[in-house]
Specification:
Layout (H helix, E strand, L loop, with lengths): L2 E3 L42 E5 L5 E7 L5 E16 L2 E16 L6 H12 L11 E12 L2 E10 L2 E7 L1 E6 L2 E11 L27 E11 L1
Antiparallel strand pairs: 1-9, 2-4, 2-11, 3-4, 3-11, 4-5, 5-6, 6-7, 7-8, 9-10, 10-11
């Protein structure tokens, strides 16, 4: 039998940020704001520990400039797990391999994509050589505005920041599927390139400004 519970997705935006290795410190800044999802009948999940299927799971990113121009792409999940207690997700861990980041803009030449990819992997953005991983830790479910949200932290360039967002999940034949959209602020992870948050570093950006918000669409498939 299939159970489904939907919390509508959050508002999102992405420039391009970076990656990091796990950190234990909790962040004190506010988590990003998300749109209020609609309420639905709650789902009951089968208790136990699930392993994320890396091949079946995806993360899509989107980055925007102040002009409205955007870039999109993907990044691979290489390991993770989630645990269900009392019929709901109690905790989860997702690790993304930043070496797998791709640019998928349909209107860009292969040469332009490669140039952008090199920049994204550089210290201006992800610093892949130094920070090969990004992590997301889910620490439980709470109600926000009357609707359950997952909450936890995202770690980029070894800097943790709190996150919370509504999510859609379902279970069928021992497989849990999770879909979510979330936003985080790259400037809080020391990703400064052409950010309006650092006017001393990048004065008079004008239409060259890259928005700080990062948009992620996450699709997770996990099995016992």
């Amino acid at each position: 039998m299939k159970n489904t519970f939907t919390w509508s997705a959050c508002a999102i935006a992405i420039a391009l940020a970076s990656c990091g290795t796990p950190a234990e410190d909790s962040a004190s800044t506010e988590a990003p704001k998300n749109e209020k999802p609609q309420e639905n009948d709650p789902v009951s999940l089968t208790g136990g520990r699930y392993t994320i299927d890396s091949a079946a799971s995806t993360v899509n990113w989107k980055g925007t400039e102040i002009t409205g121009k955007s870039h999109v792409g993907t990044v691979g999940i290489y390991k993770g797990n989630l645990e269900v207690i009392d019929e709901t997700i109690a905790k989860a861990f997702v690790s993304m391999d930043m070496n797998t980041i791709l640019v998928t803009d349909e209107d860009m030449s292969d040469r332009a994509k490669e140039r952008l990819l090199r920049h994204l992997k550089s210290e201006d953005f992800f610093g892949v050589e130094k920070y090969p991983d990004s992590q997301m830790f889910i620490e439980g479910v709470k109600e926000k505005d009357g609707v359950p949200h997952v909450f936890g932290k995202i770690i980029i360039r070894r800097i943790p920041q709190p996150i919370h967002f509504p999510v859609t999940f379902s279970e069928e034949d021992g497989t849990i599927t999770v879909d979510a959209s979330l936003t985080f602020d790259r400037s809080k992870h020391d990703v400064k390139f052409r950010s309006g948050t650092f006017p001393d570093l990048f004065p008079d950006l004008g239409d060259k400004l890259i928005n700080d918000d990062i948009e992620l669409d996450v699709h997770i498939v996990a099995t016992m």
